[in-house]
Amino acid sequence: MTTRHGATLLARLGFAARGIVYCLVGWFAIDAALRGGKVGDNQGAIASLADEPFGEWILAAMAAGLAGYALWRLAEAITDPQAQGTTAKGAFKRAGHAISGIAHVILAWTAAKLAVHAREAGGRVGGEESTRDWTAWLLGQPLGRVLVALVAAGLIGAALQQAKKAWDGSFAREMSGGTPVPQHVCTIGRIGYGARGLVFALIALFFVSAAWAADADEAGGMAHALATLQSQTGGRWLLTATGLGFVAFGIYSFVEARWRRISVDLPA
Known about the structure:
Elements: H1 3-35, H2 42-48, H3 55-79, H4 88-116, H5 128-139, H6 144-168, H7 183-213, H8 222-230, H9 235-259
Helix pairs in contact: 1-2, 1-3, 1-9, 2-4, 3-4, 5-6, 6-7, 7-8, 7-9, 8-9
């Protein structure tokens, strides 16, 4: 097996792992909406696998897949296989790939730690505390509020990108082969990207508030965004709809695991 082929397989495993994570987060959100209780986030979804039969092995496979996905995204950001980096749009996309890669490195590390200590883990732990910790660290640096504002700007850009994909279905062009993507698959993808865009926008607002107030407690991640939806008027239905959107995104991630066009610029 060549290095390129192995990297491609890891990236595909990463799409499948991402699909599992989003299906679990979506299910937790739906369960919280219909039966009450707390919502979870992607780290909490991964942690919930620790109590399952063969949890250590499942988590180890998740860690490998998420690491492969992270490496692929970081490679796209660094090597620019589609030669888009000379334009502002291309540079923005590469920055998005880098952010996605870093986020999935964290998820892979979480899964790896839980795989080693699965018997002591369990429950729906999440990343809200760590989000506030590193936000506090950023605020403690020179121009800390500016740094947090830049994080907010990046999240706004990510939210707009998700919303654009939901609106125009441009994600379908990322599939391999010349066969058009079936309409029902496009619909699933649109719903999923729309749900992600909404949650990313809320997270961006949290970071805007944190930068404005210079207060790390104002920051928040996915679980905080879902809890905010739950607390609104009609929040039960908002959270249910968002949870269904996350499940749709998870299903579309499984489709991508099989048919996504993946460029890996590595030596054979």
